[in-house]
């Protein structure tokens, strides 16, 4: 009973705090996976196997996800995802689509930051950026890509069509 109540509370809290778009925060979040482990004491839910997280225009597909809530406020603290790779899709208000993938990703709503690591890639309007790590501020629409000596940042920009 406690586990079911916590899961219901988690879904309610996520639906009001996950991702930046105002209209989307009012939509329910759907979590599906092969297993879901809820740690009430540590305010953590772990999803394993064929993980799908959907809310409005946001979709995440991964092998594993760890959702952490703030112990005091019960607001979403972070969503960490792992995959080979994990996939991210965001449909923006203007209808444009941002796709991303990486071996590891973490979303922190308090800073509107999504950080992708391990063969990170983001594609928007056919433009592609690949890096060891990509930090993306969803609210400010600001991205920083970081490479390594053996893996430089690579970008492909398409000309604008009129």
Structure commentary:
12% of the residues lie in helices and 56% in strands. It is mainly beta and 162 residues long. A hairpin with a 2-residue loop joins strand 3 (44-55) and strand 4. The longest helix is centred in the first third of the chain and has 16 residues, at 2-17. It is globular, with a radius of gyration of 16 Å. The N and C termini lie far apart (58 Å). This is Lipopolysaccharide export system protein LptA. Residues 1-20 form the signal peptide.
Overview in brief:
By secondary structure, this protein is mostly beta strands. It has a single domain, classed as Sandwich (lipopolysaccharide transport protein A fold), CATH 2.60.450.
Attribute tags:
162 residues, lipopolysaccharide transport protein A fold, 2 helices, 56% strand, transport
The span between the termini is: 58 Å
| CATH level 1 name | Mainly Beta
In this structure, how is the largest beta sheet organized?
Answer: 10 strands, antiparallel
- Please provide the count of β strands: 10
Shape: globular
How many domains, as an integer?
Answer: 1
**Helix-strand string:** HHEEEEEEEEEE
- Helix vs. strand class: mainly beta
* Mean pLDDT over all positions: 82
What is the count of helical runs? Answer: 2
The CATH H-level homologous superfamily: Lipopolysaccharide (LPS) transport protein A like domain
Strand content: over 45%
Rg, rounded, reads: 16 Å
**CATH third-level topology:** lipopolysaccharide transport protein A fold
Task: Give the proportion of residues in helices.
Answer: 10-25%
Looking at the overall shape, the CATH architecture is Sandwich
Low-confidence stretches: 1-21
């Amino acid at each position: 009973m406690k586990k079911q109540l916590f899961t219901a509370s988690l879904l309610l809290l996520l639906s009001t705090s996950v991702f930046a778009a105002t209209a989307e925060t009012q939509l329910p979040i759907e979590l599906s996976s092969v297993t879901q482990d809820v740690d009430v004491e540590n305010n953590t839910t772990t999803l394993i196997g064929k993980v799908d997280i959907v809310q409005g225009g946001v979709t995440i597909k991964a092998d594993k996800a760890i959702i952490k809530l703030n112990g005091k406020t019960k607001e979403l603290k972070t969503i960490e995802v792992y995959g080979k790779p994990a996939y991210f899709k965001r449909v923006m208000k203007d209808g444009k689509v941002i796709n991303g993938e990486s071996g590891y990703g973490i979303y922190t709503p308090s800073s509107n930051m999504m950080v992708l690591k391990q063969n990170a890639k983001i594609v928007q309007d056919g433009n592609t950026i690949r890096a060891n790590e990509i930090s993306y501020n969803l609210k400010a629409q600001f991205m920083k890509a970081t490479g390594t000596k053996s893996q430089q940042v690579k970008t492909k920009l398409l000309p604008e069509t009129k």
